[in-house]
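User: Quick sanity check before I run a bigger batch. Here is a single chain. Can you write out its predicted 3D structure?
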Amino acid sequence: MSILVEDRARVRTLTLDRPEALNAFSEALYDATTEALLAAADDPDVAVVLLTGNGRAFSAGTDLREMQALTTDPNYQRGKHGFNGMIDALASFPKPLICAVNGIGLGAGATILGFADLTFMSSTARLKCPFTDLGVAPEAASSFLMPQLIGRQNATWLLMSSEWIDAEQAKEMGLVWRVCAPDELMAVAREHAEKLASKPISSLVAVKRTMTEPLRTAIADARERENACFRDMLGGPANREALAAFAEGRPADFTKLPAGA
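Assistant: Done. Predicted structure follows.
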């Protein structure tokens, strides 16, 4: 089982549970997370979803070993939903979604915060969008959602630099709402989740719909642009060098790539 599900006081807590892999998203975890979100959306007894990770990480993003297999083996078994299915489920999730970032959030472990309605973060957690380190394009509508959420210049640094962002920087940017001591994170996030969950579900859904509906077309357009760029760059010179460097345990060297790569 790669995701844990717990119900209490109309709050469904979903815990990413691949601690040995820093909760990196394998195809199986993408599928499990998607199914859990779809089930929560349809469950009339669930008012709020609280998403967190087990162990030292929130999520280390896409499993790079699996990414390498997907780029080199045309017969590699893909999941039922995969990354795009999970993002579909997040983009259409009708109820309040609260994220409790307990540890590192890397790649998809950071960009999914663009779909959170509230984000709480441990003071020891860090976030990173390593797109330029991997020689790929943004994902999960982050090219639209991050400028909306944190402003263009903050988004530029987050999406282009591949640098770590600590909890205080994330709060200053507006990427997270509250920073908590590590041992208080889940209690504080749950307290707020249960406060929302005490309200009428129909009203929570209506508030979220009226806030997010104007963004849906822009989110879909951003994802289409990102996916086209990602397809073009996946397996390209920069991405091959990044994945080879990861597999060989060395820093990537992009300076010797063909011009424009």
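Strands lie at 3-8, 11-16, 48-53, 57-59, 97-101, 104-106, 118-122, 126-128, 165-166, 178-180.

User: Great, the batch can go ahead then.
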